[in-house]
Amino acid sequence: MSAVEVSGVTRRFGAVVALDDVSLEVGHGELVGLLGPNGAGKSTLLSLVSGQRRPDTGVVRLNGHDPRDARSRTVLGLTPQETGLPATLRVREVVDFVGGHYPDPVPTAELLDQFGLVDLANRQTGSLSGGQKRRLAVALSLVGRPRVVLLDEPTTGLDVSGRTALWDAIRAYHASGGTVLLTSHYLEEVQALAERVVVIDHGTVLADDSLENILGKVGARRVQLTDAAGVRQEHLVTDSDAFVRDLVRSGAEFKDLEIRGASLEEAFGQLVDATNEGAVR
Ligand SMILES: Nc1ncnc2c1ncn2[C@@H]1O[C@H](COP(=O)(O)OP(=O)(O)OP(=O)(O)O)[C@@H](O)[C@H]1O
């Protein structure tokens, strides 16, 4: 039994197909990065796994149970993209309050320390900066010692040190056996944390592979040439030497050959937009 199972799931909002026949399994103790551009369907997927929404078709399971059933969610921690914190409560009070809902919460002092919030313990949450609120929101997802945590863009709005501290806390949770499914726009973030990467766009899973293999794809080279018809072509390939050898062997006419390393953004964009089958190989 997997920690998260999504099988043949489709979810529409009116005419928009947010998820289109998506299947995904996350094993216990895995740390999986869900990577995709705005509107790809990442948050929708998390909302199904956390039982906030129901799929139109397909099946979603959390530790083998329907996440719509509240009992199955006692093992779940969640940081949505936006968290409303009670503005007049102090940081310590919010952690105490949320922890009070769980049988064995992480002691408040320990959690605040882990997230670099000790100096802010007596501050009303309404006075926190955006980045400080974000850190508190992620801390709250872990207070109940969940077995599975869903983090929707956990480090958006954080500065470099805040981001690093949060990554450390997520790694520590994972090292203790926790399962993490996190979304991000940032290749860098997924690279820093995840063992496995699921690339999603337009509600469809484009790639689901180890970080190593995904990085192999984004380590692509860009090859440009003008073909016999005078059309400028562009290919992203992992082995430009082999590509050129094949090209020459094929006898196809070409000119103005150019090869250069693709940036991560370019290569990832290509993976996401890949209308051109086999463009990344
Ligand atoms: N409640 C809703 N009503 C109508 N459309 C929605 C709703 N929620 C999501 N959508 C649409 O579904 C698609 C997927 O949205 P979703 O929020 O899952 O994407 P995302 O990958 O999380 O994007 P982002 O990175 O911008 O947060 C988008 O086209 C979005 O506009």
UniProtKB/TrEMBL annotation:
It is a peripheral membrane protein. SMART domains: AAA. One of its GO terms (molecular function) is ATP binding. It is found in: Cell membrane. Pfam families: ABC_tran. Gene3D superfamilies: P-loop containing nucleotide triphosphate hydrolases. Residues 4-227 form the ABC transporter domain. SUPFAM superfamilies: P-loop containing nucleoside triphosphate hydrolases. The keyword Transport applies. This is ABC transporter ATP-binding protein. It comes from Promicromonospora kroppenstedtii. The lineage of its organism: Bacteria, Bacillati, Actinomycetota, Actinomycetes, Micrococcales.
